[in-house]
Design brief:
single chain, 167 residues, alpha+beta, 6 helices, 5 strands
Amino acid sequence: MPFWTEKSLAEMTEAEWESLCDGCGKCCLIGLEDEDTGEIYLTDVACKLFDGAACRCSDYANRKQHVPDCVKLTPENVPTLTWLPKTCAYRLVHEGRPLYAWHPLVSGDAESVHRANVSVRGKVRSETSVKTRNLIKRITQWPEPSSPPPPAKPKRAAAPRKKPGTT
């Protein structure tokens, strides 16, 4: 069984934890909070460290030094972060739900998240190019599935291939 179905977030190794990130980039978007309702509205503006081509942080190891308010995901805070996308593997694993078929851990292909049109690759601009007063104009309705993916069906093992000339 895949580790994400067998372990809680807190039980994962650092490598397992990091591999849960699908590379969609949505957690690197600037969000605006409605003061009255607490609702978060995501923009199409990304953190200054976001690499739009790679769809990842350009200085992940040192991001807190450059962006002090960057939120580091932990097993403790994942349940409280309402702005995490519904497709986020950290959220899905915490909720006991399966990962989507396009998730790189399921598909075996890091580009599948982009082909599925789930990532922000090519759809955002850097916060360095947008004035703060214009952020409200940049609010974007990012498409998200309304329900979790269906449970994965068990794969049948392939029959062993015979070597030529054997019976």
